[in-house]
Specification:
The structure holds two protein chains of two kinds.
Chain A: E1 2-5, E2 9-13, E3 18-26, E4 32-37, E5 44-49, E6 53-57, E7 60-65, E8 70-75, E9 84-93, E10 96-101, E11 105-110
Parallel strand pairs in A: 2-11
Antiparallel strand pairs in A: 1-3, 3-8, 4-5, 4-9, 6-7, 7-8, 9-10, 9-11
Chain B: E1 5-7, E2 10-13, E3 19-24, E4 31-38, E5 42-50, E6 53-56, E7 65-71, E8 74-79, E9 88-95, E10 105-106, E11 110-114
Parallel strand pairs in B: 2-11
Antiparallel strand pairs in B: 1-3, 3-8, 4-5, 4-9, 5-6, 7-8, 9-10, 9-11
Chain lengths: ~110, ~120
Amino acid sequence: GQNIDQPTEMTATEGAIVQINCTYQTSGFNGLFWYQQHAGEAPTFLSYNVLDGLEEKGRFSSFLSRSKGYSYLLLKELQMKDSASYLCAVRGTRNDYKLSFGAGTTVTVRA
Amino acid sequence: DAGVIQSPRHEVTEMGQEVTLRCKPISGHNSLFWYRQTMMRGLELLIYFNNNVPIDDSGMPEDRFSAKMPNASFSTLKIQPSEPRDSAVYFCASSLETGGADTQYFGPGTRLTVL
């Protein structure tokens, strides 16, 4: 089975940095995805990690440690539009295309 | 390019009625996924297809739910009979799966309310 944990809520100030942690215990591992979901909208892809280390993409970065079953999403220079739910998702094996999603972390950015 | 298309966007029905949700995946994608999202249970995979063939339907709640993919450009999720606990947002997603960094692209969702 898959067990994916992330905090329920986080609040931060505009311009600040927020780090969203995700821990997972899965039967097999072939990549970790982060998705962003604004209220009332569909999830949209943010990042993908399959090897250990940091992947940077503009204001967003994602880190993975496979030995620890741990990832984080780092949001820098927060903007009001970053207020959304952030979903961590794990793919189990190379030939199994399904993703198991965490419950999501709701980030609220305050002025 | 058009993204994943779902219809209807909203559906309100009464308990016991049949509900059919429709999805058109992104052209060229070989995999299609049906998800259900609720506040209580989050985003759950119901079933997914690869090359129009159902691969994993272990998330389908019960026999009331069925899904088909008659061709590469169309899929349906049917609930018969519907119950109030089926109320949720149903998302369809598609991807070009090669076993690597294969992003799933989500449709806008169908918000289903069963009274």
